[in-house]
Amino acid sequence: MSTRRGVPISGQRAAAALLCLLAAAGAAANTGPRWSPAASPTDAAETTLVISAFLADGQMPGDADEAVQVWNLGAEPAELAGWSMADTTGRVVFPPGARLAARSFWWLGRESTAFAQSFGFDPDWSWVAGASPGPRLGLLAATGGGPRLADSGDVLFLREPSGRVTDTVVYGRTAMPIEGWMGATLSPYSGSGLATSHQVHYRKLDARHGLPVRDSDQAADWAADPADAVRGRRVRYPGWDLEARLRPVRVAGRVPSWLEVAVAPDALAAFLARHLSSAAVSIDMTVYTFDQPDLAEVVAARARAGVRVRLALEGDPAGGISMQERWCLTQMAAAGAELSFMDRGGDVAARYRGLHAKLVVIDRQRALIGSENPGLGSAPTDGLADGTAGRRGVWLATDEPGVVAWASALLDADLAAGRLDLRPFQARDPARGAPLPDFRPERGGGGSGYQPRFMKPLDLTLSEPATWELMSAPESVLDPDAGLPGLLSRAGPGDELAAEQLDEPLWWGAPVGAVPPEADPAGNPRVIGYLLAARRGARVRVLLDGFFDDPSRPNSNLDTVRFLNERAQAQGLDLQARLGNPAGLGLHNKMVLVTAGCGAAAGPAGARGAACRRLAHLGSINGTETANKANREAGLTVDSTAVHSYLAEVFAWDWARSGANARYLPTLGRP
Hints:
- The chain is built from twelve helices and 33 strands.
- It is of the alpha+beta class and 671 residues long.
- Strands 17, 18, 19, 20, 21, 22, 23, 24, 25 and 30 form a ten-stranded mixed β-sheet that branches. Strands 16-26-33-32-31-27-28-29 form an eight-stranded mixed β-sheet, sandwiched between helices. A six-stranded mixed β-sheet has the order 9-8-7-2-1-13.
- The N and C termini lie far apart (52 Å).
């Protein structure tokens, strides 16, 4: 049973599972252990066997990649011989011996080769033969040519051998009523920047146990539910490993372990150059863009020395692929680096709306994660001593094994060979290959006016175990307990919360009605989290970018700043929001700092000291709906007083130099 077909284990045991995955690195990409939930669910669907996901609007010609997922929610294996799955045009029947393990699922693909091209792994069953190797378990007997899921709408049935219908799903423009279904039919979710075409419909999944929620035979059971701001309003596209990454991974760090934090633009170029140049065996990396020539030459030198370099970039970045980036990629490719763009390839769309994670693993021993791309704007090398301009951001490096295992597994999945949305960089490509022979890259610092203050990274060996929470989009970042919403919810009375963000719109998608954002499912849950923390009695400061922000567009950062400040004034909250550009070329950071259980309301001073946690979140995850629900993003939260204090100093410096009245200096991180 592949990891894609298993049920995720609990976050507390996930780090160990990832280490096991690395130990089995020689296995095929779609093989691995079958995972079981940590505890028996109390609200899983009452029906033992359900249709849990389906793709009707396929990507391949003739919708040959149509697929249906069937999940056994019971505690015992399900004998499925004679069971059938059908739509209004045809059906398929499971053969003798078909046995689905407890709390596991199968993917049924119409044509196995087309399914594999879209989803990135072979289906368990198919009902049309494809090229070798075909489905993992075999072909299903089909009548009427098998199901042909209409894009516009259809009905799916799951039947026992007796013919009794045990589950029904109705979607699209389908005449009602249909026995076994109540209310409106299922429709894809339409959010800001989220395409309704080619969506994989799936039941809401409870991250506590990884199983679908209780079945009520209506559209509210499904993740596209527009009225559910927590588990609903979601999309899914072919190629996601959603079930395996549903929860953030929690790692209890070892002692001693090492970490380093570098601030952009001040120290990032030297930080990345030092780590990349130290690679002896491998460099695995995903970034949105790469246009820093000095860093490209560092990577090229390691590739020429025999280091295996795997790098994937966004194939359709905002503004296109620049000549500067093309030059950088040409140098690395000529040295032997394996470079790919993630974008549409033939009939296969890119897995993610944007490949936006900034993630690096060196020699399978160090993981680096950050907010900035390797570019001159964020990692200038010239003019730093005399003053330059750049984009404010943060990177972190660590040798913590659980973090390295998580990052390696994520990169292995995204860089897996054979994925059709990974298109190799080709120097001869006139549109995005090598630039003209006389092109010379820019190597300047990007301007002047900012005197770097954080040139020395935080470099320490931890004498106490640090707790790490590791999350990715589109799978786990919105987990209400361990994701970013859970982090914001930890700030209580007397605690402090500081957020420094590139983009934090007030609404995700169109407002549902004439109601305030905090009462509307379309309200940005991150912005609402800041507001709720202040209502609980926390001191909250929100600093948003004022360089890239366009105040004339709806849903701008300025709108969010005004909203938060108006609420603070009307409700008497210790909450302030500002626009800023402290380093001259934009506030590109994605940082949240939280103290939890540190306020006077938490109890006597001694008790507070034992319970007080200082949490720092960083990574690539912007505040847009697309970033949280459709992009590939990576982020982490570390419980470390040293990291929190260092970044709190960065925030205090930036805050004091932002907004119309830069008089307030936060106490965040001070004793």
